[in-house]
Design a protein that fits this description.
The complex is a heterodimer of chains A (110) and B (114).
Chain A lengths: L2 E3 L3 E5 L4 E8 L6 E6 L6 E6 L3 E5 L2 E6 L4 E6 L8 E9 L4 E4 L3 E6 L1
Parallel strand pairs in A: 2-11
Antiparallel strand pairs in A: 1-3, 3-8, 4-5, 4-9, 6-7, 7-8, 9-10, 9-11
Chain B lengths: L4 E3 L2 E4 L5 E6 L6 E7 L6 E7 L2 E5 L7 E4 L6 E5 L8 E8 L8 E2 L3 E5 L1
Parallel strand pairs in B: 2-11
Antiparallel strand pairs in B: 1-3, 3-8, 4-5, 4-9, 5-6, 7-8, 9-10, 9-11
Classes of the chains: A mainly beta (110), B mainly beta (114).
Chain lengths: 110, 114
Amino acid sequence: GQNIDQPTEMTATEGAIVQINCTYQTSGFNGLFWYQQHAGEAPTFLSYNVLDGLEEKGRFSSFLSRSKGYSYLLLKELQMKDSASYLCAVRGGATNKLIFGTGTLLAVQP
Amino acid sequence: DTGVSQNPRHKITKRGQNVTFRCDPISEHNRLYWYRQTLGQGPEFLTYFQNEAQLEKSRLLSDRFSAERPKGSFSTLEIQRTEQGDSAMYLCASSPGTVTYEQYFGPGTRLTVT
């Protein structure tokens, strides 16, 4: 079966650091993506992990542990514009389709 | 490269009517995906094209749904005899199929069935 879990909602303060966790159980694994989605807009790519470890990209970092079926997205120096839904997605199967979690709605407060 | 485009952006239709959506992928992207997203949920995979060949269809794609990509460029998704449960955002994504296989999403078509 396919199962991707992430918290439904999180709240954080402007300037702080927040970590959004994602656990997955999928029948195939060809990499894990994080996307950002503002309300009413399309998802936009943030990061990609296929090997274990940390990938850093400016204020955003993503970590993967394949043996634990676990990833997290770390957002530093939070800004109000970071308020959005963050989607964890596993790429799997021969067609490399994405299997998404329900998303974590992050609210950044002043 | 103007990104993935979708038309229309919004569609309101009455139950029982047919609707058709169009997706224009990034040029030279040979992989094209359709997803459906309802409020508070992540996108769910519907179908996949590699060039003009439809290689995978989700069980979510009932016989009322049909998708085409006739020349391996733009794609259409048709829903026949729409039902209220079809109300959702329909997202199209394309991928060059290389390196990270990153998928680039279009702005979506929001369907409301009344």
